[in-house]
Specification:
- The structure holds two protein chains of two kinds.
- Chain A is mainly alpha-helical.
- Chain A is about 70% helix and about 0% strand.
- Chain A has helices at about 25-35, 40-65, 75-85, 90-105, 110-130, 135-155, 170-195, 200-215, 220-235, 245-270, 270-280, 285-315, 325-335, 345-375.
- Chain A is flat.
- The termini of chain B are close together.
- The chains are: A mainly alpha, B alpha/beta.
- The complex binds adenosine-5'-triphosphate and magnesium ion (MG).
- The site of adenosine-5'-triphosphate has 11 residues of chain B, from strand 2 and helix 1.
Chain lengths: ~375, ~270
């Protein structure tokens, strides 16, 4: 690389030195040429994009940050400050005042440490599951498997803790409870349904097909209504059955039906030779599935699985309809306060940012996982 | 199907260690199989003694794969008996497991597990089927990878190897279970010509060590070098079987003659 080649110099065959690539093909200049200006179409798209960004970005930044008001006791105060500055922006003071409500819902103030601790526990439990280089991963996984029970105890109480009824759950905490439970519960159930649907046992196959088709064929809202009202007809009179628990079950079943189809697609992509090789070596059905078929099928299915999870996570907002206070429910309740009326944009932008950040994290993780599992076939 | 004789080096043609014993290890009696209404295997009768190297050939669709796949129950037969190592193949899972432990199989398309490394491919069955400790299974795997001459590829994934190397890994993977019988279903027909020899050499070595082998192949050089019996199938039946010289030089049946003239014409 370091050898300098003189103009017009000739070399013996076989002694031509390695030259650095022409400057216009490397570095920032090269990247811009290659990616933004490589053809007329590309140039037009680049110009349009720049124009679009120029139209969108400055006002958004002004509204979100530069002109925004972060302190104030009511909407009128926000207005007054903005009028003084002669600009209009977001009144984040509103969100600031309601922040705890957005995070904890109506969870009793003196018990909120339990929610915080649960959140930390959840993060700690996720690490070994998502990151295969965790030290002592095997032992940590046992902890992860126990975490849901500890978290359930922390949030609901009993056994020495003060009981908090689940209708006090709300805000982002409720979103996480429904979303994470749905994700954790639906993946194994979805896999089991996908395997069941391919089973050689007709009875099992029919049960799985009917379940999947029924759940997929009904809107989630309908299932949630069923959960909130209809189940009472089926249960023996006098039994009470926690509304949140019903919602958790319905959301899990709903996502599981979708996952089952995603995973089935992955299973069908695995060549028959794989199971034949496993059979010929004497592996049992479950061993073949666990060691050979599922790792490959799930890997192919990652984009679809994460897609389903993201859908589930966002669908948690539907619980507002049966009277649970998810972040949108909290927002709507807050907007009813006369001091803060008319600030719905702030509420919805705030909630949108929360969901966007969560979903983009899932999406990036799935890309990372796909790359990591790529073994060159 | 390349020119057969050229594939096999003369020094590997030593057949002195290949002993056939009297002990019958596979006994197929009056076996029939149907795919739906299609009678794919008709009245198959075959006895294989320990140490035999049998080559099975025949036109495409004649049922060669189906027959050897019945021996380890990748396909189910509907009539007749198959007895492997004194264990009869029935619907009893215990018997099927016992037979699969004794019988190794190598496929045309290798069927390696692409998400596992070469070493993991080889150690998998010993660990999970034979409950060997991982270290022991991996040591055995390395031993067989050395025997097929690719120990240096142990940590690669199958997708990073050439076809010939993949097929040798597949053979090593089968050998790791220490089988007494090996089934090969066209092990070289998915390979480029220059890779066929490296796989055949491994199979020849295996034959010389006394492995009982049933091999579906059209490599006639291989058949002449190591087989002690060649079986010709057509239309789901065993038409003719003989020791290689008689089979090639003096085929009895008209259909065999036609088949041989076709494949040797290449
Ligand atoms: N799963 C199946 N269902 C129905 N018919 C089948 C099935 N598998 C194979 N057959 C048919 O059975 C016959 C024998 O197939 P087999 O694969 O045993 O032939 P083969 O002798 O191995 O041929 P080749 O040399 O092409 O591999 C063929 O006519 C084939 O079409
Ligand atoms: Mg075949």
């Amino acid at each position: 690389m370091s050898s300098v080649v003189e103009e017009g110099k000739t070399y013996e065959p076989g002694t031509y030195p390695d030259l650095p690539p022409p400057p216009s093909t490397v570095g920032i200049v090269g990247w811009v040429r290659e990616n933004l200006l490589s053809s007329t179409t590309n140039i037009v798209i680049t110009v349009l994009t720049l124009y679009f960004l120029w139209v969108i970005l400055p006002p958004s930044i002004n509204w979100l940050f530069l002109n925004a008001v972060f302190e104030g006791a009511s909407r009128d105060e926000c207005r007054a400050i903005m009028r003084e500055a002669g600009a209009s922006g977001a009144c984040w003071a509103f969100i600031g005042h309601r922040f705890e409500l957005f995070v904890y819902g109506f969870y009793p103030v003196e018990e909120r440490w339990r929610v915080d601790l649960s959140f930390i526990l959840m993060l700690a439990a996720i690490v070994p599951v998502l990151w295969d280089k965790t030290p002592q991963r095997g032992k940590m996984m046992i902890g992860s498997a126990l975490a849901p029970f500890v978290i359930g105890w922390l949030l609901i109480g009993g056994f020495g803790l003060e009981t908090v009824p689940t209708d006090k759950f709300g805000g982002f905490m409720l979103t996480l409870v429904i979303g994470v439970t749905g994700i954790v519960g639906s993946l194994p159930l979805g896999i089991a349904l996908a395997l069941g649907r391919q089973s050689h046992l007709p009875a099992l196959r029919i049960v799985c097909v009917v379940f999947i088709e029924f759940i997929r064929g009904v809107p989630l809202i309908t299932l949630l209504f069923v959960a909130s009202t209809m189940l009472n007809y089926f249960l023996p009179p006098g039994t009470t059955f926690d509304l949140l628990l019903r919602v958790l079950i319905m959301v899990t079943l709903f996502a599981a039906a979708y996952l089952a189809e995603v995973v089935r697609g992955g299973l069908q992509a695995i060549p028959k030779g794989q199971i034949e090789a496993a059979d010929a070596m004497g592996l049992k059905y479950w061993q073949s599935m666990r060691l050979i078929i599922l790792p490959q099928a799930l890997k192919i299915s990652i984009p679809g699985i994460v897609n389903t999870f993201i859908g589930l996570y966002k669908d948690t907002t539907l619980v507002i309809i049966i009277g649970l206070f998810d972040p949108l429910g909290v927002g709507r309740a807050s907007l009813a306060d006369t001091k803060w009326q008319g600030l719905s944009t702030e509420v919805y932008v705030f909630v949108a940012i929360f969901f966007f950040v969560s979903c983009i994290a899932m999406s990036r993780y799935s890309l990372y996982l796909e790359k990591k599992l790529h073994t060159g076939h | 199907m390349s020119t057969p004789e050229a594939e096999v080096s003369p020094e590997t043609s030593d057949t002195s260690k290949m002993q056939v014993s009297d002990e019958v290890v596979i006994r197929i009696k009056d076996m029939h199989k149907w795919y739906g209404a299609f009678h794919v295997l008709k009245n198959i009768n075959l006895e294989v003694n320990r140490g035999e190297r049998i080559v099975i050939c025949g036109p495409s669709g004649s049922g060669k794969s189906t027959m050897i796949r019945c021996i380890n129950r990748l396909e189910e037969h509907q009539q007749g008996d198959i007895i492997v190592d004194d264990v009869e193949l029935t619907n009893d899972l215990k018997n099927i497991d016992a037979i699969r432990r004794e019988v190794g199989m190598v496929f045309q398309h290798f069927n390696l597990f692409p998400h596992l490394t070469v070493l993991e491919n080889c150690a998998l069955a010993p660990i999970w089927v034979k409950q060997q400790p991982r270290a022991e299974a991996e040591a055995t795997a390395m031993k067989y990878l050395e025997r097929v001459k690719i120990p240096e590829q142990a940590d690669k994934f199958p997708g990073q190897l050439s076809g010939g190397q993949q097929q040798r890994v597949a053979i090593a993977r089968s050998l790791c279970m220490n089988p007494r019988i090996m089934l090969f279903d066209e092990p070289t027909s998915a390979l480029d010509p220059e890779m066929i020899k490296e796989v055949l050499d491994v199979m020849i070595e295996l034959a010389q060590e006394g492995m009982t082998m049933l091999c579906v192949t059209h490599e006639m050089g291989f058949a002449k070098t190591v087989a002690n019996r060649v079986i010709f199938m057509d239309g789901g039946e065993i038409i003719e079987q003989n020791e290689p010289h008689e089979f090639f030089d003096n085929p009895q049946h008209e259909r065999t003659q036609l088949f041989l003239s076709q494949i040797l014409a290449h």
